[in-house]
Hints:
This protein is an alpha/beta fold. The chain contains 6 helices and 7 strands; from the N terminus they run αβββαβαβααββα. The strands form 2 sheets. The protein has a 5-stranded mixed sheet with strand order 5-4-3-6-7, with helices on one face. A two-stranded antiparallel ribbon has the order 1-2. Strand 1 and strand 2 form a beta hairpin. Residues 4-24 have low confidence and may be disordered.
Amino acid sequence: MKNKFFLLFLIGLIYVFLSTTIFGDKKLAPDIIAKDIYGNDFQLYKYKEKPKILQFMKVYCGGSIAPNTVKQLKQLTKLYKIYKDKIIFVTITLASCPTSDLKIIADELGIKWTFINDFSDYKLDIIKAYAEYLKKLSDPALIFINKKNQVLFTSNYCSEEELLKYINSILETIEK
């Protein structure tokens, strides 16, 4: 009996090792179907031909945003200008206060890509769908997705140099 248990344990261990090292542990990113802050329809899976960067952030009452989130948004704004034709950028927030005007925030920070408030429909479906990733991350949280809609990387705030490494990695998957 102990031998069977040990054998099953060993097989399970080998499977986990092989699936994460040789085959990769690439989970399919949940689809996002929502309206952005301007009322435009958005669906993540519609953009099958492009990799995606999802940036999750908190917006506090009065429109206050954490300093690292502001820095990350400024970096993303700069990189968006370079990669907007190659990568889909999406920012998702949970802003429940009526004093948080997301259109003003988008304008002040130069956010020209899709900006979604997951609280606007009171469902929190995007946050729930990505909870597996978000529970391990802080504000701001970044999720990098290839054109096959597989999550390749997750990160908290990262430097522009690190962002470029992630971007180059998701762009390289286009050619493979």
